[in-house]
Amino acid sequence: MPRKRLAVVLIGAGGNMRNAHVPRILADGAVTIAAVADPVPAQAQLLMEKVGREIPHFANWRAMLEETSADGALISTPHRDHYVQARACLERGLHTLVEKPLVIQPAHAKRLLALAAERERALVVAYQRHWMPHFAYARELVRKGALGEIRGVVGYVTQHWIGAGGWRLDPTLAGGGMFMDTGSHLVASLLWVSGLRPLAVSATFDNAGRNVDVNGGLVVRFAGDAVGTLTTTGNASRHDERLAIAGSEGSLVLHLHQWRVCSMLLNDEPVQPPKRIAPDTPDAALFRWMRNGLKRYETQDFALQVARLTEAAYRSAAQGAPAKVRR
Hints:
Blueprint: E1 6-11, H1 15-28, E2 31-37, H2 41-51, E3 57-58, H3 61-67, E4 72-75, H4 82-91, E5 95-98, H5 106-119, E6 123-125, H6 133-143, E7 150-160, H7 171-174, H8 183-194, E8 198-206, E9 215-222, E10 227-233, E11 235-247, E12 251-257, E13 260-266, E14 269-270, H9 282-291, H10 302-319, E15 323-324
Parallel strand pairs: 1-2, 1-4, 2-3, 4-5, 5-6, 7-10
Antiparallel strand pairs: 7-11, 8-9, 8-15, 9-10, 11-12, 12-13, 13-14
């Protein structure tokens, strides 16, 4: 049976939209890009070259929403703009995908999740690790009790993040630095896989001469007496990432290097996810939920936990003292 055709609008035509989301849209084969909004015409032109055809372009995203009919929207813009753009899309009845992090402020995450539920629309945050078979299997193992009660977690991510430049180094646009940006992947995968609920955090950040944090370290206390440490290093030579979870009955370690899963160890033995867990993407999940009426839709509640922990970490660093994770 042919796939139901869908139309989407794009807000933001930068490198992430062009190189990550557009290829996934084209791979679907039945999703049409109805329009793209970006204040820089050259960015929109590069996106059209990637797609291979002319697409209606708007300098103003609000005008695009007013004048374009679509089923969904994909947003890849500076973090500061996510909330107002996602809210406008949901209010217009559009299923919506937002690049990570969902928002900067926890209250905004709570409102978007409530709005998506009220309008019966999918709200997807583009955390790729959730769609990698190794991470999906790790979550399954935790839920089945393979590790017993979670006692501790350790995670780190490194990257030559300072080389990215642009708006990510502007605190007004980004809301934070490496921890808010790439570090958000680490926080999200930790919370999604482990199911832990953060209660308090003690954090310190180093700006390394920039206007936002480049390096950082956190000690986190979770419900159930679990503890964890997280570090983000933005002036390293390359990407490397590990997530280790220790429980009363076992341990699990996930290792990524240069954005690919290198290994997964269960009790120090290599393990592979079963073939029934297929690779996926947040975009493909969005299109699937749009077509099937939200069947098996997974609400993105973890994104609220990410926002809460992130806000508490920056508050702790600013105060120079531990901070409670606000509910």
